[in-house]
Amino acid sequence: MIEDPFPFVSLRMMTSTVELLDYHEAIESIKVMTEQEKSYNCRDYLGAIHSHRERDETNNTIGSRKRNVTIDVSCRQKMCEWCYRVCDHFQTDREIVAFAFSLLDRFVDRCCCDRKTFKLAAVTSLYMATKIFNVDYLPIKSLVELSCGEFLESHITEMESTILKTLKWRLNPPTVQAFIRYLHALLPLDDLEESKAIYERALFFAELCVYDYNFVTQDRYLIAVAALLNAMDGIDEGAFLSKDLQLEFISMIQYDCKFQLESDTLKNIRGGLWYLYGYSAQIFHDGVLQGPDQ
Predict the structure, then answer these.
(1) Distance of alpha carbon 4 from its chain centroid, rounded?
(2) Residue 145 and which of 55, 209, 243, 258 are 20 to 30 A apart at CA?
(3) Where residue 5 falls among pLDDT bands split at 50, 70, 90?
């Protein structure tokens, strides 16, 4: 589903504060969120749209012309980039975007949208997410101004009501970031600097995954595990220590959290996250590559 090449992502890693959590409380929280996540699943709605379009074009129906203006991967990526830019501009928590896109993806999974409706739903979802977070940095008037007059306050409030009804008020999805916070507490690390470095890198992978539609149908806890494993790569001078730490972590969460981690699935997710990293602004800062085309 993802387009090639992937568009450049302006996101850079930010400094984060590591929360000190009790080991056993973290495990219980993870189990609760894993069960809760089942109520927030999203289907491959863009794949369904593509299938409908192909069928309509084959049958040469009017529907094919209408669906030519429906959303695609590019539309979603652009709105994701816009949401992150808005959050960074107003210095709000980037996890808001993960909340917003959970609302957005699940809404579009249930309601057919053209591009303008999708954009309105994205703006509204961001507004709703700020209210869930109890953040007052993104008032509705500011979002109206940022839409350059395309939407009015009434449009956003009406869409908010529609989203609430469509999602049946399921507004508190467990995010990848939330899983990372608790899974990070299980890491067998004594070095606080290493622990902080892993946490910040893992959160960055969590932020990147929102861009990629391929992660929409994936379990959040699996993405969180993959993000932490990726973050462990290269944290020390000895590659064996990093590998041993990853194996110990996997063994621990499989036993304590009862996670079923298929190696191929985890490998694919980790690769997808590294792929996104390769198209982010962070790669310039780290000096790994000269650019996405290299």
Answers:
(1) 19
(2) 209
(3) low
